[in-house]
Amino acid sequence: MTIATWNVNSIRTRLPRLLAWLERRRPDIVCLQETKVEDERFPVAELGGLGYRTLACGEKTYNGVAILSRSPGTDIVRCLPDDGADAQRRILVTTIDGVRIVDVYAPNGGELGSPRYAYKLEWYRRLRAFLAAAFDPGQDLVLCGDLNIAPDERDVWDPEQWRGQVMCSEPERECFRALVGWGLTDALRMHQPEAGGLYTWWDYRAGAFRRNRGLRIDHILLSPSLAKRCSAVLIDREERKGARPSDHAPVIAAIP
DNA sequence: ATGGCTACTCCTAGTAGA
Question: What is residue A254's predicted lDDT score, i.e. its pLDDT?
Fold first, then answer.
């Protein structure tokens, strides 16, 4: 199977590009983030026309995650167990073809020391607790999405400029290492252990994409059984080019 | 030249993204 993750920055704005990309890449499972739409308004019919089923967990304007798949999903979980009824829509879990899929849109974090930064760290603590309580690293499991953390200096175009900034701070990186420490493998780094310049997000401003001034903040993390099978991981930079792109590129893992 | 953007909303200004 191929599984992809993509922060589309609005499913409605990105729908033409998403449909063309699905036709070209034909991934089996796609985890989307920042759909920015309530579930009633999600473009289910258009995606169905290409043979994809939709599971959506969204809200108006902000956040929102969704999972597209050829096979149906079962055992669906929306939000974290300690989220309230009005929680930000940031997590969606399902099982597809025997693989547990955890689709995540982590908080941005605002500025270091801000309430939103504290919320991000707390949210990661709750995510880690959810993993421990609800899953087993011995199962076939993928945790992927926009984690809003660049794990180390190889993942940042200018480590000096970004040192201590949000997405690069040591407490955030400790949150990423806690996921890996639970038993997950960073699929891209498994295949490209040293390479720099591999980014998944580039600012819309300042010609950042053209200059490859980016960050690697979108990740596919695999349980050991899937890491063993994963044969390739691709950052689909083509999707950051052209008219009206998302500011994120998709990441695709092949798991034969 | 060191900045330049995009998408959302009871839309035309303010907020958020990262």
Answer: 98
